[in-house]
Amino acid sequence: MTGWSPAAGIEGKAVLVTGAAGGIGSAVAAAFATAGARVAVHDLHDDPVAEVLAGLDGEGHIAFAGDLRDPAEPAALVDAAREALGRINALVHVAAVLVRRAELRDVTLEDVDLQQEVNLRAAFLLGRAAAEAMREQGGGGRIVNFTSQGWWTGGFGGSVVYAATKGGVVSMTRGLARSYGPDAILVNAIAPGAVDTPMLTDDLSEEALASFVDQIPLGRVAAPAELAGVAVFLVSDHASYISGATINVTGAQLMY
């Protein structure tokens, strides 16, 4: 088809990407920049997010640093990105933390609070702030949340709290999709399986990683760019009737 583009509708759009200094987040930011979007990148520390910003294709991008554990940060970030870019057309929320413990009994109250505050509370506050900004602007918008295969499996051992927060992200995505659908704001989630990032490999033995990969029919972990492509699709015109969905990107490890 003449003129057909996989990134249709993205050129010139303002896209806010959280967790942008991480493996998946940096790939997501790069993909949107290459597709012609103006990207606001956010992460915890100045230097890593500035490095991501410097590597983006195109012009008109901006970087922010801040702690999503601060209840005021999500709304302030949305406001700052909107002011810098003129509007906000899409939020792609990648930021998350995983505290991996060998045994469930090793999980501390601090572990629980950290993961709930970053993975679940911040997702709600960001999604609400972005959706309200989109509603005020008019013209609809897109929100893409990143969950995990753990939302379905429930996790194991010391990752149970992480999995619970990611299950909450799926439920929240559905609720936001219902709430903001009348405003043409589409809200979806991406559930990655094993992705080649430090979150997967840090504190995980080679034997445990090999055992995990053995469960994947494709026989390998994903590259971060393979998740970025799904995010671009969900923000593009090709996903204009998809909302409330959780896209499974696990190499056939999970099927639902």
Summary tags:
globular, 44% helix, Rossmann fold, 256 residues, alpha/beta
Task: Draw up the topology in text.
Elements: E1 14-18, H1 23-34, E2 38-43, H2 46-54, E3 62-65, H3 73-85, E4 90-93, H4 109-137, E5 141-146, H5 150-153, H6 160-180, E6 185-192, H7 198-201, H8 206-214, H9 224-235, E7 246-249
Parallel strand pairs: 1-2, 1-4, 2-3, 4-5, 5-6, 6-7
Helix pairs in contact: 1-9, 3-4, 4-6
Describe the structure.
The chain is α/β, with parallel strands linked by helices and 256 residues long. It has a single domain, classed as NAD(P)-binding Rossmann-like Domain (Rossmann fold), CATH 3.40.50.720. Helices cover 44% and strands 14% of the residues. The protein has a seven-stranded parallel sheet with strand order 3-2-1-4-5-6-7, with helices on both faces. α2 (46-54) links the parallel β2 and β3. α1 packs across α9 (224-235), α3 (73-85) packs parallel to α4 (109-137) and α4 packs parallel to α6 (160-180). The radius of gyration is 17 Å and the shape is globular. The mean pLDDT is 93.
At a glance:
Helices cover 44% and strands 14% of the residues. It is an alpha/beta fold. The protein has one domain (14-249): Rossmann fold (3-Layer(aba) Sandwich), CATH 3.40.50.720.
**CATH homologous superfamily (4th level) name:** NAD(P)-binding Rossmann-like Domain
Shape-level CATH architecture:
3-Layer(aba) Sandwich
Estimate what percentage of residues fall within beta strands. Answer: 5-15%
Rg computed from alpha carbons, rounded to a whole number of angstroms: 17 Å
Total number of strands: 7
Overall shape: it is: globular
- SSE run: EHEHEHEHEHHEHHHE
Q: State the domain count.
A: 1
- What's the CATH topology label? Rossmann fold
Structural category is: alpha/beta
Number of discrete helical segments: 9
How far the N terminus sits from the C terminus, by CA atoms, comes to 32 Å
Fraction of residues in H or I helices = 40-55%
- The average pLDDT is 93
Uncertain segments of ≥5 residues (pLDDT<50)?
Answer: none
CATH class wording: Alpha Beta
